[in-house]
Amino acid sequence: MALSRAEAALADLLLLSTSPDLANGAAERLAAAIAALQSVVRDAQAERLRYEGLFNALPDPISILDDEGRILDLNVAGMTAYGMARDALVGKLVHVINPDLPRDHMKPVLDVLNQGQSYVIEVTNMRSDGSRFPVEVHSAAFIDRGERHIVAVARDLSRRHEAERRYRQLMESIDKGILIQDANGRILSGNPAAMRMFGIDDGDSLADALSLDKWLIVDERGQPVPFEELPPVRALRSGLTIESTLLGLYHHRDKQLTWLSVTSVPQYAADGSRPHMVISLFSDVTSLKRDSALFDRAQSLASIGGWEWDAARGGLYLTNEALRIMGREDDPPSDLPEALRLVAPHDRPAVEQAVSRLLREGGSFDLEVFGHRPDGQALWARMIGEAERRGPMTTRITGTVQDITQRKLEEDRLRVLSRTDPLTGLLNRDGMMSELATRLAREDGDTALFYIDLDRFKMVNDVLGHGAGDQTLIAAARRLQRAVGDGAALARFGGDEFLVVADPTSLDDTPERVAARINAAFADSFRVGEEDFSITASVGLACASDAGRHPEELLSNADAAMYDAKRRGRNTWQRFNPGLARRQQDRVQIESQLRRALDDDEFHLVYQPMVSLHDGRVRGAEALLRWRHRTLGEIMPDNFIGQAEATGDIVRIGAWVIGQACHQICAWRKSGLPIERVSVNVSHRQFLGEELPQIVAAALGKCDLPGSILELEITERVLIEEAPDILATFAALRALGVSLVIDDFGEGYSALNYLRRLPIQGIKLSRQFLQGVPENRSDVAICQAVAGMAKGLGLSVVAEGVETIAQRDFMLDLGIEQGQGFLYSRGLPPLEMTEYLRRPSR
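== Diguanylate cyclase ==
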């Protein structure tokens, strides 16, 4: 509406400008006013188009409401979901899409929003044809033009409800009994089939009815089964599936025996190493057990065959299922030695020794063996044998043979899965550490480990979503595979980190060349959907010869080298060397001495000029902290700022920096030097308390300075915190007249939402993006996008890291008029900066 009024006003002015009654001076002023109004209209139109594009690109129905629940706006997904045009909904109460809401439905919503939280509820919405569908609505408040509105996002739950319904229907209709127990064996639930098998009436307690003191549990020979040998207990203890165990359950009160075939499957929670519950499936085989002919069938279903060997007579008896398992239905073996020829040579001695021991000493054995059927088909079998008499010198052994080939194949598959990253198909952390240990144990070469971290990957997740992030990781894995070749092992180590392990026998060239190829693999931009973006890699290289013969040691060395690559500007590789180890020790030493540095007067400031890119005239300066240690010498900020933030010392140091910078500004102003403002970097830790505005006010007051002379540079991390105390700090600083700008814009978590709602006056374009301009298309596109966005939002832009004339000219072409960098000056001590200010414009 505001835009329409502006357009109407513009039309009236255009008519008035043609009036012959206007004097020449008045006509010129009117023409200037018309031009200004036209610019405002164009900017407003662009702002509206950006809003509508973002709003309508979201896939879920989104409604903008006022406090009364009246619909103010609706996106395209909402119109599609409800089958109604925007004009049919806007201005109506939300009851038009949810007629079941009570009259005071907004009260609980507003109560939660007033506490600074979001409100979530499941309701049933209605389409234009009267059909209903369940939704989960997330509501949050936002301020627009001083008025609070509510954004409500509706997520369709129809598919989830249908899946839950089908699951319940399956559990209720399946004819197998199902019991679920926790890690302590406590019964959590059971399906109707289980209730029927155990004779439990509706309403009775399942746990009470299945109490072990009410039942006698026996095995197929009628022997009592101890609690620790029950299939669910064994599955929880071993972490393996316990298949097709035949159990007889005798109920003491009802004096009834039921035979069940039980399979227990352990369940693992996400990231769990031990089962947290077990699911048991029961089949009632009572009738099969009673009829021997049918019991043979039960053996077949369970893939369990029986055998008996009379050592004295040399006779061997095998059930039909045993012969089928062995593949000898048409040619039964005549004795045990002939049968054992099916067992692989490496497993055969164990079976022969177990049989001999039973004949001498009695007892039993339980072995898993590998072999081949006569047709060559691989076979895994579980062989159980028991002496007929418990005493020694027995002549008869009976037992079972079970086909466990499928279980073994599944175990192999699970073993592979346990070592594999499900997203990329590469090795995971455990798989890679095992592979690394194996290669180092050979001691036949100089094993090389590459630790790879993707630079600025978090930006992909934050801006494009986790789906795009996953696609990027998969594409990165493929590039790495091509770069390192087939002889190397590649793993996704977690998040956006990858590992490559190789040795000279698997490399055609040196580890350094492989590291360079890894960097080169990320030279081309990535593409997800319609989006192109640049992702680079920081690579750390460590070799076993670099004092890294143990896996964890080699990994630590490669990790240190990777962080050194990041410190050097990313998109590069570094090889571990003793100097890195010394730097790690230096960091520990630095942290221990950091707290004394301020009291010992070891900090000082240097000032880097911020200039007009048109003529080099100084517009301001950035105050940069330096530490001159009495024994270690000059220590750059990269080597101590991180520790200061981690320990909290940055709060006290930051207060000193603000005071020192104000003192220097005062000295320059008294000398009549032309400087408009000084920028000071402020850590996010300084925003977590309430002291920052008082510190700034005290420093300004002590030097009798206006707030406009001071500019605070904040990181994007401060923006995403958005805690109430941080917002209050923003407001207090703006009340002092202090400017707030975002430093290194684009490297972290920037979002239009923060820039639009928070009192930010400007941004500093990161030097990371300037390095590639004007040659690198990706960096050029980013700089153009940032410049256009800043102009649209009315933000000032300062280009950091301007080092060449080509970079300066490119910035000027984008409309960025201020910058700093080595093209103009490094950071200067106060006296040198004073001389710099006295020079004529360059």
